[in-house]
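explain this:
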Amino acid sequence: MIAVALVLAGIAALVHVYIFVMESLTWTSAKTRAVFGTSAEEAEATKELAYNQGFYNLFLAIVTAVGIVLVAVGSDAAGTALVFAGAGSMAAAAAVLLVSSPDKRGAALKQGVIPLLAVLAMLVGSLA
């Protein structure tokens, strides 16, 4: 079950790296604006906010990736803690998005289900 958790956590980390790219690097592009449903004016007005938010997503991905690597090299306690912290924070942030903006349910599910499954699989694997 730990292997399943690590694969899911890795996928979640990659999704959050992609979100970082969109929010911090391509926020005002037509493609990214279409994903987030923003106009050119809205994207320009929120560029600094999105840039900062993108780095939060990158840092969560890094924490999760470091946890995966640590588990892979045998530092199970530290690695598991980091996977719980990173993927758990991703799932929690998605829950906040879902509750605060129900109209963004699709985005919340896209960014939150996989890390939640990773956390649950890691919990089951850790208890076994």
